């Protein structure tokens, strides 16, 4: 019965950098855990914290929001907005008792396939240690 | 003292309406029981007599203002309501020139539950006598000092005088007695708990939530025409009160109000399940005061 816990991670990746990074990771055959399910968004600034809340609601154990490095945003300042907004949202999650580490913000450029693989592996390990969120179990 | 304010308020409302300075005057009238007041709009000078002012005038009038857009409105505001109006003005939801604001110095409002608990039977009358309240239930009369009956938010209120007004009624008394209680004591002790205890606490509290959205309806700062957080009536998550959806609703509501909440605690007052929502909104206030790196 006791299967090892496999966290489910939702990845919200910016179309210009992080999604390209994930693509590079694939093309260069870097290994990373299959726990992440990726959704491409146009910019990390596009990600409403509501998406994150809904992801937890639907059973995700962690959410990765990844975008361009500071200063490299395709839309000039989208990633800066994302950083501000998720810093605040993270503190609120903490107040409600959801570990802040379940929401991770990362900067990955399109050429950094190895970095993308490292970020996903690291996050998966961290969530394995944290255990399931179990929001859906009463 | 509220008796005097009530007389002055009626006189001012009468004059403003009679002189044509305002089209309507927004205040409170006596409600369905001695422990209730209801928001009231006086539209003619004669109606000004129905206005009341007593230590139970808790409802925040700021939320009713947007309904009267385009008309000249006079209104009576306490300090906490004035903060909400100021925030709505800052967000350009209201036009300042539309309003004639009669600010009222407020030394705190009484908690109806504590007033009711002071006597054995149902309360039949409430009269203010100096610094004391005479609470009557049939033949029984209890005397209580107002400071002992204050709402939690009033006990921790630092400013009796509104920050926004055209004219002011009442006098700001020098702070007598105890200094205001620490507004953030509850938040700090809650944050000292470990995360799993916090999660368990909120799950327990939100398990009572029926998604009636009263907190949202009453909130003066919830002014979006369509709310992305409100589940439609026929949404299965709303019908089954899916605990995780309730959790997400309260979490996101806190996030949306993070910059705007003025701490009037109306959400907690109207909550039929007595969920301690003020804890969340005190936390937001604390966040704004102590910006973190």
Write the layout of secondary structure elements.
The complex is a heterodimer of chains A (138) and B (293).
Chain A: E1 9-14, H1 18-27, E2 36-41, H2 49-57, E3 62-67, H3 78-95, E4 103-107, H4 113-130
Helix pairs in contact in A: 1-4
Chain B: H1 2-19, E1 24-30, E2 37-42, E3 51-52, E4 73-77, H2 79-90, E5 99-104, H3 112-117, E6 125-129, E7 132-137, E8 140-145, H4 146-149, H5 152-155, E9 167-169, H6 185-191, H7 195-206, H8 214-218, H9 236-239, H10 243-256, H11 266-270, H12 277-289
Parallel strand pairs in B: 1-4, 4-5, 5-9
Antiparallel strand pairs in B: 1-2, 1-3, 6-7, 7-8
Brief summary:
The complex is a heterodimer of chains A (138) and B (293). By secondary structure, chain A is of the alpha/beta class. Chain A contains 4 helices and 4 strands; from the N terminus they run βαβαβαβα.
Explain how this protein is built:
The complex is a heterodimer of chains A (138) and B (293). Helices cover 40% and strands 17% of the residues of chain A. With 138 residues, chain A is an alpha/beta fold. A four-stranded parallel beta sheet of chain A has the order 2-1-3-4, with helices on both faces. In chain A, helix 1 (18-27) crosses helix 4. Chain A is globular, with a radius of gyration of 15 Å. The mean pLDDT of chain A is 93. Chain B has 293 residues and is an alpha/beta fold. Chain B folds into three domains: 2-109 and 150-169, no CATH class; 113-142, no CATH class; 181-289, no CATH class. Helices cover 35% and strands 16% of the residues of chain B. Chain B has twelve helices and nine strands. Chain B has helices spanning 2-19, 79-90, 112-117, 146-149, 152-155, 185-191, 195-206, 214-218, 236-239, 243-256, 266-270, 277-289, and strands at residues 24-30, 37-42, 51-52, 73-77, 99-104, 125-129, 132-137, 140-145, 167-169. In chain B, the strands form two sheets. In chain B, strands 1, 2, 3, 4, 5 and 9 form a six-stranded mixed beta sheet that branches. In chain B, a hairpin with a 2-residue loop joins strand 7 and strand 8. The longest helix of chain B is centred in the first third of the chain and has 18 residues, at 2-19. The mean pLDDT of chain B is 89. Chain A binds chain B through residues 49-50, 53-54, 56-57, 87-89, 91-99, 135-136, 138, and chain B through 191, 195-202, 207, 228-229, 243-245, 247-248, 250-252, 254-255, 258, 280, 283, 287, 292.
């Amino acid at each position: 019965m006791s299967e090892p816990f496999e966290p489910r991670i939702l990845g919200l990746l910016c179309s210009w950098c992080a999604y390209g990074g994930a693509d590079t990771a694939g093309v260069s055959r870097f290994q990373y855990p299959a726990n992440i399910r990726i959704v491409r968004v146009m910019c990390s600034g596009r990600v409403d914290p509501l998406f994150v809340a809904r992801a937890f609601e639907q059973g995700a154990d962690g959410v990765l929001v990844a975008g361009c490095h500071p200063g490299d945003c395709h839309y000039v300042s989208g990633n800066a907005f994302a950083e501000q907004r998720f810093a605040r949202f993270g503190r609120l999650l903490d107040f409600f008792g959801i570990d802040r580490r379940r929401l991770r913000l990362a900067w990955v450029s399109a050429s950094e396939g190895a970095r993308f693989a490292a970020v996903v592996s690291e996050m998966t390990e961290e969530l394995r240690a944290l255990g399931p969120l179990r929001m859906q179990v009463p | 003292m509220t008796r005097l304010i009530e007389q002055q308020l009626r006189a001012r409302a009468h004059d403003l309406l009679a002189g044509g300075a305002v089209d309507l005057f927004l205040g409170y009238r006596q409600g369905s029981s001695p422990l209730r007041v209801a928001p009231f709009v006086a539209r003619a000078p004669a109606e000004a007599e129905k206005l009341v002012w007593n230590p139970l005038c808790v409802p925040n009038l700021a939320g009713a203002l947007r309904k009267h857009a385009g008309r000249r409105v006079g209104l009576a505001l306490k300090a906490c309501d004035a903060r909400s109006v100021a925030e709505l003005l800052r967000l350009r939801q209201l036009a300042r020139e539309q309003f004639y604001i009669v600010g009222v110095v407020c030394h705190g409002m009484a908690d109806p539950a504590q007033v009711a608990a002071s006597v054995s039977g149902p309360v039949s009358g409430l009269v203010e006598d100096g610094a004391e309240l005479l609470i009557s239930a049939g033949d029984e009369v209890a005397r209580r000092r107002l400071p002992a009956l204050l709402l939690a938010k009033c006990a921790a209120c630092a400013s009796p005088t509104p920050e926004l007004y055209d004219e002011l009624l009442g006098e700001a008394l020098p702070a007598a007695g105890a200094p205001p209680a620490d507004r953030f004591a509850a938040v700090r002790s809650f944050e000292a708990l470990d995360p799993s205890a916090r999660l368990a606490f909120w799950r327990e509290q939100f398990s009572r939530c029926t998604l009636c959205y009263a907190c949202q309806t009453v909130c003066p700062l919830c002014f979006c025409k369509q709310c992305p957080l409100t589940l439609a009536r026929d949404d299965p998550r709303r019908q089954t009160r899916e605990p995780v959806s309730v959790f997400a609703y309260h979490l996101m509501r806190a996030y949306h109000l993070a910059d705007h909440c003025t701490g009037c605690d109306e959400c907690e007052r109207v909550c039929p399940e007595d969920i301690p929502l003020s804890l969340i909104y005190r936390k937001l206030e604390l966040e704004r005061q102590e910006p973190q790196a």
